Amino acid sequence: MESVAPGFYKIRSRYFLLLTAVLVVLLGVTFSILPYKSMAPAEPEYVVPVIGRIWSWQIGPLQNRDGTPVQAEGSALVLPVGEPLEFVVTAEDVNHGFGIYTEAGELLAQTQAMPGYPNSLVHTFTEPGTYHVLCMEYCGIAHHIMTTTITVE
To answer: 46: which strand partners?
Structure first.
């Protein structure tokens, strides 16, 4: 049986502590430079409440972050181009899928509309125009008519 050199375990424990310290420092440096914080958009100035219900969408009115309306209740919803908007999406009855499409049929943004749970979707419209909102989750026999439009100017 081989004998262990004197001080071997002392060196091994110091090596382990040094390696652990280096890994902790590298982990700390890595977390501090992760890009996710810098990639997050600024908190949008405007909020657009969205409620899905069988078989229609109630969108708006456009509000400031503090909840004060920017547009009068009942007026036609017109959203600003180039401004980040936070769509707060929920449902009254069953799950729905909230999808925003261009006139050409390209999907721009989507989230789930669930009863009792508001989902937040931040989107910036880069071009003025008419955009279509479609339900992306089967919600019953008239699911195909659950559409509306959004005007962006």
So the answer is: 64, 85
DSSP code, position 28: H
CATH 2.60.40.420 corresponds to the domain 43-152 = yes
Q: Distance between CA 146 and CA 58 in Å, rounded?
A: 11
Q: Are 105 and 68 in contact (CB under 8 A)?
A: no
Low-confidence ranges of the chain (pLDDT < 50): none
Predicted pLDDT of residue 98: 95
Smallest CA-to-CA distance from 80 within 89, 72, 67, 71 is with 71
Domain ranges of the chain: 8-37, 43-152
CA distance 93 to 53: 6
